[in-house]
Amino acid sequence: MSALAVSGAIEAGLLFSLVALAVYLSFRVLNFPDLTVDGSFPLGAAATAVAIVNGIDPFVATAIGTVAGAAAGYVAGFLNVRFRILNLLAGILTMVALYSINLRVMGRPNISLYDHSTIFTPFEGVLDLGVWTNSAILLVIALAMKFLVDWFLATQVGLALRASGENPTMARAQSVDNNRMTLVGMTLSNGLVGLAGSLFAQSQGVADVSMGIGTIVIGLAALIIGETLLGPVRVVWATLGCLIGAVLYRFFIAAALSAGFLGIQAQDLNLVTAVVVAVAVILSQARRRLRLRLWPKLLGLLPRRQTQEG
Amino acid sequence: MLNICDAHVTFNPGTPLAVPALRGVNLDIEKGEFVTVIGTNGAGKSTLLSAVSGDVRLDRGGVYIDGHDVTGWPTERRAGLLGRVFQEPRAGTCSSLTVEENLALAASRGGRRGLRRALGRGVERRHLTEQLARLGMGLEDRLGAMVGTLSGGQRQALSLLMATLLPMKILILDEHTAALDPGAAATVLELSAEITGEQKLTALMVTHSMRNSLDYGSRTIMMNAGRVLLDIRGEDRKRYTVADLLDLFKKTTGGEVEDDQLLLG
């Protein structure tokens, strides 16, 4: 692998670690299987690209992309809590609607940012890192977002959000408004996705209406890899797992592509991702079953230990 | 403190499966009263508690807590006035949160939750440790343990502490020892009586045991078919035995009492 391929993989990995953090918030913390992601990712890209092309400061444009993503998340959440639309369907409806909206926002299927300055431009002269410049900036952003999520989930609202996702009955009895928590969680989650889309467009130099396809599955793959490596229980480890999982995932994909492994080509990416996620889920279930079957035997062989569960 | 006026609730109204669960319940509970509620399955005990907590909305009638008309309030709003312990230990606590995090959530019940750090430091943590030590379950050393690793009795004791951590108007105990083994059940019941007495709480406890309904609390209500059948307190209540309750029950309903419906011991 060339240095360019490695830096490109790490850059993409860090970008998608933001999606993984978002997916952790929706799928895991909030227990909301949110498919809005495939629409809010290109929405963040589209809004930022249009803003930059129209001469708006790249940092403001990035904020606009983030807010646009957050608004999409709010809509999906609102469909769910206000009209009792199934969470899965609420996300799909929003995602489908966003395809049209993204075309409207851009006015055409793609916008090139090649001749425009992005949030990466000011650092190119300052940081003398060559192909690693974008990765360095994205690493800072990804770490900042990780710590932001860690901090938020340890606040009073964050704790209420976690309780609401895991045990809504208990949360309500502790005066938590579950509907409000769904809205808060979905807004934050898709804000992160919008930010990821915005940064993706700026690092790749293009916003494309079809760039969102498969985003959710890449985010899930990264999340699951991180959980497998670090264990999903504590928040600070889970969010670190999102970063590591996303970078590792993109790195292995890039390695497989460059080595011509099994004849994999760029267009096979979504298939590979789907297979990886499916296999990871199947393996984690099989491992749980295996453990259940093995435990009684092992307990018979080993001296009896007092278990706390009861 | 708690007034229930002419409460009517029907499940699945207008269908062949319509079940009238409450049929005109009137109840006035004074501040500091500890009321035990007994009755067979389907008598309306749990529906009565749900009507107070807000999980079930009344078709007719009203619920008033400390002068507030809460009839139209959703559960999460009423929660600021109530402390609750559920029957199932898993229902009242969060498995993936630590003991300390569960308590922190309870400590902000009824208030505005903001972006302040949820867990306290120093003094607050020492205070929590002292409270946990009083439960006598060894939880004071396990502030950082996931609640999913605790036993049912420990979880229910934690639930009880969470419910009574803040000053509130009414403590609701919904058969909160029914899912525990006999030893843990006795411990949690004793703790409930102790805390209720110490803090002079107004409490409403549903139980399946006739014995417990007379031994604990200051007033006993027997329900049948969605109505209050018997309401005894003070000197009057002291004269009642389990056998009296059983006789009365048979006389009024004209039916047999099955063992699995009411525990006599």
UniProtKB/TrEMBL annotation, chain A:
<feature type="transmembrane region" description="Helical">
    <location>
        <begin position="237"/>
        <end position="263"/>
    </location>
</feature>
<keyword id="KW-0472">Membrane</keyword>
<dbReference type="GO" id="GO:0005886">
    <property type="term" value="C:plasma membrane"/>
</dbReference>
<feature type="transmembrane region" description="Helical">
    <location>
        <begin position="209"/>
        <end position="230"/>
    </location>
</feature>
<keyword id="KW-0812">Transmembrane</keyword>
<feature type="transmembrane region" description="Helical">
    <location>
        <begin position="6"/>
        <end position="27"/>
    </location>
</feature>
<feature type="transmembrane region" description="Helical">
    <location>
        <begin position="59"/>
        <end position="79"/>
    </location>
</feature>
<dbReference type="InterPro" id="IPR001851">
    <property type="entry name" value="ABC_transp_permease"/>
</dbReference>
<protein>
    <submittedName>
        <fullName>ABC transporter permease</fullName>
    </submittedName>
</protein>
<dbReference type="GO" id="GO:0022857">
    <property type="term" value="F:transmembrane transporter activity"/>
</dbReference>
<feature type="transmembrane region" description="Helical">
    <location>
        <begin position="136"/>
        <end position="161"/>
    </location>
</feature>
<keyword id="KW-1133">Transmembrane helix</keyword>
<dbReference type="Pfam" id="PF02653">
    <property type="entry name" value="BPD_transp_2"/>
</dbReference>
<feature type="transmembrane region" description="Helical">
    <location>
        <begin position="182"/>
        <end position="203"/>
    </location>
</feature>
<keyword id="KW-1003">Cell membrane</keyword>
<feature type="transmembrane region" description="Helical">
    <location>
        <begin position="269"/>
        <end position="286"/>
    </location>
</feature>
<feature type="transmembrane region" description="Helical">
    <location>
        <begin position="86"/>
        <end position="105"/>
    </location>
</feature>
From TrEMBL, chain B:
<keyword id="KW-0472">Membrane</keyword>
<dbReference type="InterPro" id="IPR050166">
    <property type="entry name" value="ABC_transporter_ATP-bind"/>
</dbReference>
<dbReference type="InterPro" id="IPR027417">
    <property type="entry name" value="P-loop_NTPase"/>
</dbReference>
<keyword id="KW-1003">Cell membrane</keyword>
<dbReference type="GO" id="GO:0016887">
    <property type="term" value="F:ATP hydrolysis activity"/>
</dbReference>
<dbReference type="Pfam" id="PF00005">
    <property type="entry name" value="ABC_tran"/>
</dbReference>
<keyword id="KW-0547">Nucleotide-binding</keyword>
<dbReference type="InterPro" id="IPR017871">
    <property type="entry name" value="ABC_transporter-like_CS"/>
</dbReference>
<comment type="similarity">
    <text>Belongs to the ABC transporter superfamily.</text>
</comment>
<dbReference type="GO" id="GO:0005524">
    <property type="term" value="F:ATP binding"/>
</dbReference>
<protein>
    <submittedName>
        <fullName>ATP-binding cassette domain-containing protein</fullName>
    </submittedName>
</protein>
<keyword id="KW-0813">Transport</keyword>
<feature type="domain" description="ABC transporter">
    <location>
        <begin position="2"/>
        <end position="250"/>
    </location>
</feature>
<dbReference type="InterPro" id="IPR003439">
    <property type="entry name" value="ABC_transporter-like_ATP-bd"/>
</dbReference>
<keyword id="KW-0067">ATP-binding</keyword>
<dbReference type="GO" id="GO:0005886">
    <property type="term" value="C:plasma membrane"/>
</dbReference>
<dbReference type="InterPro" id="IPR003593">
    <property type="entry name" value="AAA+_ATPase"/>
</dbReference>
